[in-house]
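Researcher: Here's a chain I'd like modeled. Treat it as a single chain, no partners, no ligands.
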Amino acid sequence: MNQDIVEKLKLTDAQIADAVCHIRAGEGLTVVAEALGLGALRRVEQNRLVSQLGIFEFAQEVMTARQFWQKHVMDFNFELDEPQLIEEGLHRLFIEKVGDDTYRYLFAEAVE
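Model: Modeled as a single isolated chain. Structure tokens:
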């Protein structure tokens, strides 16, 4: 995600998380722009800023701790709880923290 745009728009982690939830729910530009506080702008300006921000791409690669745990708990024979598995993923440099409760894989092949 374009950090320059995040800073320019003064976006909070909560706004970004809300927008990501809307994207994952299949909602479109207008709802996402509203979640980001861009609802007052013309649609063409919303489209430009959201596109430059790269949030739709970002939403496809981030996950919550719960989503990561659900996807990988079997890899550890159900021996680790959610915080332990997140800690293990961070320690092994498999994932990185990108928000309050959002993480992303460090390597594209990790999601395959």
